[in-house]
């Protein structure tokens, strides 16, 4: 087996970060031997195949097209560590096996995605190839699609699709906080680093999802007709309320103000407990057809398992669902 090394990378969005690499006969490659052999490849603007494994003569990374690769490799490592150290899960399938990342997909491609078939995540370079979609929360969002697929298998349409998307935003956000990266501090915003709107605003807001102009804050009977990236809104809002509570709050310099459906006041139980509850529900009680009503029931069961059915945590989970109009 080849030697596992710790290199240093200059990323696009997360400053200078450690990258776990592997020594080769002529240098190093972006192969993470500490995390299931996760590799990072260069698609060189192509849209198919695996691409070319990133290699370098030294273990200092970040020149030119390596920067996006550093983000992707670091993002996958942080997400791996989040699942392992916070949730006790070893890899996407829980079997210790790594996936792989492909960067520089297509030309001016403004998206990133997980694909079950390749068991890999892929990143475009954004408009004019100027802003790769490789920020930490996006990487963790995409990798979490693999976890959801390997566990609850939430169907990617209707209300279950919204819950699938929310699961990626929830653990994407939890991973970003977990990283404690000083350049990309944790927040309840999605895609705040990649300037996808061209005006510096994030893609999504968990404290008040409707701030993006399309996402829903609350459940309603027609929620399942919305695009899954908008029907995720109420569940993202639930997670924010459960973690931080309703009303105004500033965290890591970002100000939030989270409303409730019934103008009730919710007092948060903290992100760590909310994260454990969502994960236990996802892996124990959610199925491919779980809708919002069933998600309420599943998270309550998970909370009873973890903290008891007379606990403050249990009461707060119930209150947070009621606050997004799921009763
Ligand atoms: N970036 C998007 C996502 O992960 C890709 C998609 O629409 N599935 O949700
Ligand atoms: Zn997604
Ligand atoms: Ca974020």
From TrEMBL:
Domain Peptidase M4 C-terminal: start-end pairs: 152-326
Cofactor(s) needed for function: Zn(2+)
UniProt domain Peptidase M4: residue ranges: 6-149
Keyword annotations of the record: Hydrolase, Metal-binding, Metalloprotease, Protease, Secreted, Signal, Zinc
Catalytic activity, EC: 3.4.24.-
Claim: Protease is one of the keywords in the record: yes
GO molecular function, one term: metallopeptidase activity
Record field: transmembrane: none
Hydrolase listed as a keyword: yes
Subcellular location: Secreted
Chief localisation class: secreted
Function, in words: Extracellular zinc metalloprotease.
Family under the similarity heading: Belongs to the peptidase M4 family.
Protein name: Neutral metalloproteinase
Whole-protein residues included: 212 to 538 of 538
């Amino acid at each position: 087996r080849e030697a596992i090394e710790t290199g240093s990378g200059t990323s696009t969005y997360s400053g200078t970060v450690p990258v776990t690499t592997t020594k080769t006969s002529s240098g190093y490659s972006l192969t993470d031997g500490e995390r299931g052999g996760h590799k990072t490849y260069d698609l060189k603007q192509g849209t198919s195949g695996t691409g070319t494994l990133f290699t370098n003569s030294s273990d200092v990374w970040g020149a030119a097209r390596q920067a996006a690769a550093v983000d992707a490799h670091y993002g996958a490592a942080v997400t791996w560590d989040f699942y392992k150290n916070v949730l006790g899960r070893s890899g996407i399938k829980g079997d210790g096996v790594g996936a792989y990342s492909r960067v520089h997909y297509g030309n001016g491609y403004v998206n990133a995605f997980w694909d079950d078939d390749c068991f890999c995540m892929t990143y475009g370079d954004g408009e004019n190839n100027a802003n790769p979609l490789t920020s930490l929360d996006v990487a963790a969002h995409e990798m979490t699609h693999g976890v959801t697929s390997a566990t609850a298998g939430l169907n990617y349409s209707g209300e279950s699709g919204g819950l699938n998307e929310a699961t990626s935003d929830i653990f994407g956000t939890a991973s970003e906080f977990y990283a404690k990266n000083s350049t990309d501090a944790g927040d309840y915003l999605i895609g705040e680093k990649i300037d996808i709107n061209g005006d510096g605003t994030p893609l999504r807001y968990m404290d008040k999802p409707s701030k993006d102009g399309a996402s829903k804050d609350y459940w309603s009977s027609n929620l399942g007709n919305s695009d899954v990236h908008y029907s995720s809104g109420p569940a993202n809002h639930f997670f924010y309320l459960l973690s931080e509570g309703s009303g105004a709050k500033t965290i890591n310099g970002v100000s939030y103000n989270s409303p409730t459906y019934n103008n009730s006041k919710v007092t948060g139980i903290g992100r760590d407990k909310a994260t454990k509850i969502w994960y236990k529900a996802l892996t124990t009680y959610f199925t491919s057809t779980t809708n919002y009503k069933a998600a309420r029931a599943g998270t309550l069961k998970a909370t009873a398992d973890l903290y008891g059915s007379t606990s403050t945590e249990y009461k707060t989970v119930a209150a947070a669902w009621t606050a997004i109009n799921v009763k």
